[in-house]
Batch of 4 targets.
Target 1
Amino acid sequence: MTSGASLSLTAAERERIEHIDRLVALGEAGVDELIGALSERSWTVRRAAVAALAALGDDAARPLCAWLAEKRTSEHAIAAAVEALSGSIGSTTTSEVISLASRAGGPVLEDVARIVGRRRAFEGVELLRLLLEDSNDNVAMAAIEALGAIGGTASIAALITVIESKNFFRTFPAMQVAARTGDPRVIEPLAALLDDEWYRFEAARALGRTGSALAIAPLGRLLAANDETANVRLLAASLDELWTRAAWSGAVDHVLDTMRQRLVPAVPSFVKALHGGEIAERAAIIRVLGAVGGAATVDAIAPLLGEPELRAAATDAIQRLVRADDGALLRAFESADPETRAAALPVVTTHRSAPAVRKLLADEDPEVRARACEALARIGDTAAVKPLFAALGDPNPRVAHAAASAIQSLGSAETPALAIAAARHERPAIRRQGLRIIAYLGHDAAYDVVRAAIDDPDPRVAELAVSALAALTDRRVDEVLAEIARSPSEILRAAVMRAAGHRLGDRMHALLEQGVEDDAAWVRYYACQGLGRVGQSSAASRLMGRLADATPHVRVAAIEALARLDTPESWQLLLSLARSRDPDEQRAALVGIGHHTRPAAIALLVEACMSG
């Protein structure tokens, strides 16, 4: 880990940077010394010198060009000078750099090309075209990069000339740069190189990097080559990159439509190439199949769900096929592979798929059953409510919870009666789920069954019954909660405190104040939370009494509750506790202070941040 000290300036560096600032104020008179600072060993000082020279603009441009041509003391200094000229604000900087080319050669010409390219200087295109003819390949490659950065008709024409020249060391970089421009004019010369064994691979990848739908047809010619498998993999990798880059530019829909129109006949070739090869190549083939395949393609991709490195690509491909083709959806649902069935379910969004999804509630695989529950909720299939209630008894908890969530999402006229029946079921697990549904939907007709469930022999059922009772509007609820608050069961008393915190009225407030003095720590904890949620200032004194509680989490709950009470006493306590030696108490106080907009709150929080 990098220490804070290593990111700070040393005293010597600070002094040199301050001196650079003074040199900038001198203008042209300070340029020579600033150029000397480009050779500083400290990167921070060099950066300051670069920024200073760039800001001086025309005053520094000519001296910098002269230094590049004549002195060039070190690689660090050269790179800094190039950067300063690239970022210079001077109006004559570009012309000074261009004129430098007439009196220098070799490495200086490389620097000139880089500067012109970084400045996006259209007036330098003619010079760059001349540099393409230089005998030094490094100079030519710098010119190629610069032309790509500048763009425009003249630049693209120059790059195309280099591509068509088939000069081995220049054509390759020209292909890469031309592809990055995204200009459609580069597609034809790149496509012409697909017939040349020396350039085929890089030409195909370059066509992919264009992100253009126009590149799909020429790429399809790779399938006519002799080494079909190798070329299919190359085609898939190129199409995958083309598709990705099209997504960046917003043209992905047109690209995918073109791929489907052109490449459907090639699906068998892609399937054949699926096995063997590098992981990246196979993943690309899978993604292409997801774009251009049909229902039968699901069976080819499904086995790859078992390979960890390819699972994500295979899942995405199956889901793409399922979204585009109902036949693919049915094929996936009927697959013998549970992973295929599970992969298809998350993208089901139409009600016409409901009958097929309902059948999967009885699937042998629990993940499929759970995802079927989620899918039925997503498509709003109220006809599935009854089978979903049957799924509440699933031996797998994930399925049971998914079924309960789906029931809560869907709702229907039969839901209350089915929920009441579930709350009376002989199996405790189903009773619990039934009570959760009643609590979520608040069915007042369920009062009797919920009241009876409080005496259930399963303590978890009884606890959920208290929560469900609190969700009902029946007038008898408050009286029953007051009665349960005197229960010998700590679990039930704690449940009452949670329930009271969500109900309004003096009766519930009195229960919470009573709970603050309970013998059980968790009852006190939930009572403190409830008083904070209710927010009555009259509870402040009782909450303050819990600040000395022997149980840490009760003290924290009391602090959190006091933070919700806008009284002078609670505010002063928060200020005091913000400096507590107990980290939990201090943290709770600071969080509470953060809910206030007083100036003192901001000052204290800033102080806490600075304390480390």
Target 2
Amino acid sequence: MDGEKLLLLENAAKDVMSPPYAVSVEKRREAEAIFMDLKQTQRPYDACKFILENSSSDYVLFQAGSTVRDAVVREWEVLSGGERVGLRGYLLHYITSRPDLVSYVREQLVQTVALMVKRATLEEDRRALFDSVFTTVTQLLMTDNSKMRQLSCSLLSALLTEFSNSSGSSNIGMPIEFHVKCKISIQDEELLRILVFTVQFLRQYVSIDLSSLPPSHLSLLSNFLHLLSKILTWDFQIAKFSPVPLNISDVATVTLRPPRSYAATFLDPSFLELLFSLLGKMWCNEDLLHHLTQGLTQLASLTKPVLASVEEQQRYLSSFLSGLLGYISVRPDLTRQEVYGLSCILRRLATNFSPSLFSSLPPPQLSLLVSSLTQLTCLTAHKSATEEEGSEESLMYVESLDHYMEVFVSLLTEPHPLPPSLLAQPCIQVFTSYLKSKLVAPRGWQSPHREEEEIFELEEDDREAFSDQLRSIGCIARSIPHRSLPLLVQTIHQCTESCMEKLEVIRRDSLTLYSKQNDLDSTYEDLHWLVLISSFTLCDITRG
């Protein structure tokens, strides 16, 4: 590679990046062929180093990085140990010494470094390999340059992506056994080390007013919270490894089951205190709140071998709820994202911990839990009815309501339900609120009517679309039959009388049905929901 060939590449880059009207199809193909020739070059490392050092074209720099990556994958076996170490060191030094490198070029090179670290994990001294990475990351975080601080997080995030065997991992042409061994090899030490490093970094924000931080600092905090979320969604279950990589969108379904070596971190009371303290500062920032609530949702699923005994499970659950309920108590006006995030966390807790563990909580804490859950469920029922139907806000509240009602049902379920005296009044409040959320004003909170075309364009029958909610409210209603059944009978009677009165007015005044269609639609809608709720209350088997 020399200056003349570099100029050829840069001119080709201009042709590739030019708009269609400025370059002929033939000329664009010739330019693309030049970059294809570069990618197919055997041992292109010196040429790519020359390009990286001398080119002023971001596109050419990106293509050089991409060429190095492809060549490393293709030629790994023929590279000597010294060549591998030297190339990895060069790329690491290159990205850390150029703070003004455009982001997509930097990320391409970061991914290549992460790929090379993974490829070398089973061949080199793993501890020394990661020591060099952590040394670089620590040095980057200590600089005053915001881009270099972001780079520190990018390096750790790229490593997690490569080792996680997710759909974001690079295809390097190795058998699944290789990926499994690489993933297992870092779980006990290196992954824990990244977790501890991340937690230590986050501690500095406890005493900082986040509203006073510049955008670059908030972006860095967001990236580290995302890094924490990636660690907590790591799939530690060896039996679940398969040739099909875990899709990134499926991480929320992974149960947190790290080895016992993580107990010192997860069972340290200051760990959960830190996260809930940060949560109290982030409610007004949706991006930060999303990453942190996702992490807390995963922590709500923590189980064996970290929580090895019933006593540890009880202490962890109590500590978790202490932070969660403390947060709810100081946030009287919850945003929709908070409502949704809290519903996911509580649902995970109810799924992961048995009712007997909830029953063993200190009475004041258990009472506060039920009170907070009741407040959240009633609030969400009201919001789901008053937001515009089909809007993003409405759908989020509907899903949140599903979650809260599931939690209620889990606390009512045998063999260890909570004391009836503790749940009776909350169940009455929840049942009444749910009933109002489905009925039209003045009996409920729904708008007076929906347009005819909206009614007929529903994609699913309400019985199917709201089956989870209906099963839950049926279970809740059966726990308080002395209040739910009379209320249903009374409301059905009122709706029936109202319907008869409206039909009588139409008959008496010789009016058309169309002239009173809106009033009738509202009444029909009320009767529709009353029949559904009554059916699911009277029958605990709703299919077949």
Target 3
Amino acid sequence: MAGMEANKTGNCKLLSVVWFKVLPPKFGGQKAVAFFNQHLAKCAPLICLCSKNNESIATNYRIENILPVGKIQVLNPFAWQKIYTAAKREGITHLLLEFPYYGLAGMLCKKLLGVKLVVNTHNIEYLRFKEQKKWWWGLLFHLERLILRAADAVFFKTEADLNAAQRKFDLTPKNLAVIPYGVDEMKGFNKAKARHIVQQKHGVEANERILLFAGTLDYVPNADAVVSVEKNLIPLLNQQSFPYKIIVCGRNRFKKFQYLNDLQNDRLLLAGEVDNIETYFEAADVFINPVLSGGGLQTKTLDALSYHLNVVCFRSKTVGISNAENKIFSVRDGDWNAFASKIIAASQRTTETPQAFFKKYNWRTIAADAYKKILAC
């Protein structure tokens, strides 16, 4: 078979299948895919087969945005055919799935074309939906187990996810690897200039601390976090002599989450999906991550650390993050009194994120490690 023969000769040609919008990358989940592909493409030729709502931006790999838009696309046999056709036409050796949802199509390509199947997970999916009390989580468990067991290599964002998946799905250890989210160190920016821009745009007073939260708001854990900020955190901060504004940035496109726009509080500013999210990270004094539910690595926290911001979050959301001593101010889950106190403490300390952090979460190193695992499978 063409795919198997190419792999034997040491050649590698990758087809990355992405079912959701990642281009241009703005948020953590989008960056996790776009930047991973960008650096992986430096190791081997890569084609990104993605949904039609991705933009054909300039990058070092080829973009074919021909898949349907929407979650049910993964059940669409015509979408499966597009993946199979692209893999066969391009002589693909390794099929890289972002999330396991196109796994049945991937298994078909593996059987018919002899390609190696690699799944890049971002969470343990069935656990995420079990926590949200979706009735179909049990079906997803069996599907996820089937696909990950069939894969030649499976990547996880954290050691905790790897160990849990290995135990729950009875996976072969040699096929598994931790391939974390990466960042680039942000340096040389003008914080005073960024702060002035945000102050002028949102009416933030000169003496007010800017507390930033950024993430997709049409996602239950993030939406619940914003509600908790308004209900639990702001009343506690208002009891202190602490001038501040909380700015929330993020996409909110679905009708079911529009209730967030009705939150009324002069301390809470919903900025929406901003074009220049970098300016908000540069301007912020503290990044707050009030998320309590959901799984996986908190990419938003890593992004904040790349800007040398102090981060206040709940302890369960520090899983998989290391080498960030004196930058993460974590508290027991649900302890809003401690959360408020940590915000004040974090706003009074200015230190740079350790270089050990950037060494561990360097995209080039991460992609190189992933490529070694791909070649070994």
Target 4
Amino acid sequence: MYVIEPDVIGDIPNDEFYNLPDIIEKYMDKGQKVGVYPISESSWMDMGQISEMKDMINRLSDKEQI
């Protein structure tokens, strides 16, 4: 998940694919402050595919029961 300042959105080119890590690198190269909150691989949940989304729902449902 990325949390960015509203001004950063203006630096993202329109009508072309652009990775947020590229924006982050651009800001770091300019000496801008960039913060991160590291998470472990076991905490990361990707839902780019239907099967991954179902797994995520199951994991979150299990945590609610604890």
